[in-house]
Amino acid sequence: MKQPFASAIPIIEEIEKAGFTAYFVGGAVRDHLLKKPIHDIDIATSATPVEVKAIFKSTVDIGIEHGTVMVLYNNETYEVTTFRTESEYEDFRRPKDVAFVRNLRDDLQRRDFTMNSLAMDKHGNIIDYFDGKTDLANKRIVTVGSAHDRFAEDALRMMRAVRFVSTLGFQLEKLTLSSVEANRHLLEKIAVERITAEFEKLLLGEARTKAIHLMVQTKIYEHLPMLRPHRDGLLLLSTFSCGDLDINEMWSLLLISCQIPHQDTEQFLRKWKLPVKRIKTVQNIIKSVSERQKKQHWSSMDLYNFGLSIAESGEKVFSILSEKSADVKSVRDAYDKLPIKSREELQIGGRDVIEWSGKPPGPWVKEAIANIENSVVEKRLANKKEAIKEWLKQWKMI
């Protein structure tokens, strides 16, 4: 058994010693069969939360009302969840109640897609009640049971379905697809933060082109923040090959594709509940792309003002829009050659300028510093105190 499953086998064995059953479940089993990297693993068990807590010395209640206990074992943490069934859902997202059960099949039957309803025992044997392995082999996304019921229970599952198209390169089974089209309006009932989490994973998936086309085909995009008027922008975005872009660069490319005016970018991104810091990063990337398009090169002042990280991102986005190879190395080399990287590196400050001039402080000092900064960056002036003083005299600034 490969890691990380091997490290968790003692958890299952301890549960079994106490007379209960336990299995690996969910996405980790799916990714194991797909030979994809595995991150977090989930364990499902017939033991109730109280029984799990009695088996292990160190536990944390992280979702005990829904049956989940975190087990601390050998300096690692494992989420162990009791087999459960769920009652009627409310808010198209959460079950009103959960009931703990002893039967694995009942637990797996409540899951979203057949590929996520697989379980695996400690020996690596797969338990497959709903033909998930066949759907994996056929690269199909199929709901467990009625697609209409699954999406009515939890509307976020529709975004997850399209996200899996992007990250796995799969396609939606016919009835699942038609149910997405019929129920897409329910996405408006879901918290924006949860929509955003799925959408960002979609934007980073290797098959994002396929997923974006599917969003347009099913008209899901009409029920996502700010996207209703931007069908053509989404289709344009889907034409770009942008495998190595990070999420900030993908947001930048999305806004540029949708032709969102600069003054509206903050409102657009706030509707997606993005953090203020990330909004500013995206805005700066878009600004840097605009400057790059105007000048067809990176000026020293652009590199200085934007900084290396933004300039690199801008170069990558620009290269995609212009269908050119991104020359990030040249950007780094040019940035490294800048005489200064920030105003703090100037050999003089406002006090020096005031002292040399004998004038009272005022807006003129800020203007003088900006002129010095620009000249040093553009290598028209050496960053040395005496040279700067003589330069100010020459231009009658002091």
Structure description:
The protein is of the alpha+beta class and 398 residues long. The longest helix has 20 residues, at 276-295. The protein has helices at 5-17, 27-33, 49-55, 104-108, 132-137, 147-153, 156-168, 174-183, 192-204, 208-218, 231-237, 247-257, 265-271, 276-295, 300-306, 308-321, 328-336, 350-357, 363-377, 385-394; strands at 22-25, 42-45, 59-63, 68-73, 76-82, 84-86, 89-90, 94-95, 98-100, 119-120, 126-127, 140-141, 171-172. 50% of the residues lie in helices and 11% in strands. The model has no long low-confidence stretch (mean pLDDT 94).
Per-chain topology:
Elements: H1 5-17, E1 22-25, H2 27-33, E2 42-45, H3 49-55, E3 59-63, E4 68-73, E5 76-82, E6 84-86, E7 89-90, E8 94-95, E9 98-100, H4 104-108, E10 119-120, E11 126-127, H5 132-137, E12 140-141, H6 147-153, H7 156-168, E13 171-172, H8 174-183, H9 192-204, H10 208-218, H11 231-237, H12 247-257, H13 265-271, H14 276-295, H15 300-306, H16 308-321, H17 328-336, H18 350-357, H19 363-377, H20 385-394
Parallel strand pairs: 2-5, 12-13
Antiparallel strand pairs: 1-2, 1-10, 3-4, 4-5, 6-9, 7-8, 10-11
Helix pairs in contact: 6-8, 7-9, 7-10, 10-11, 11-12, 12-14, 12-16, 13-14, 14-16, 15-16, 16-17
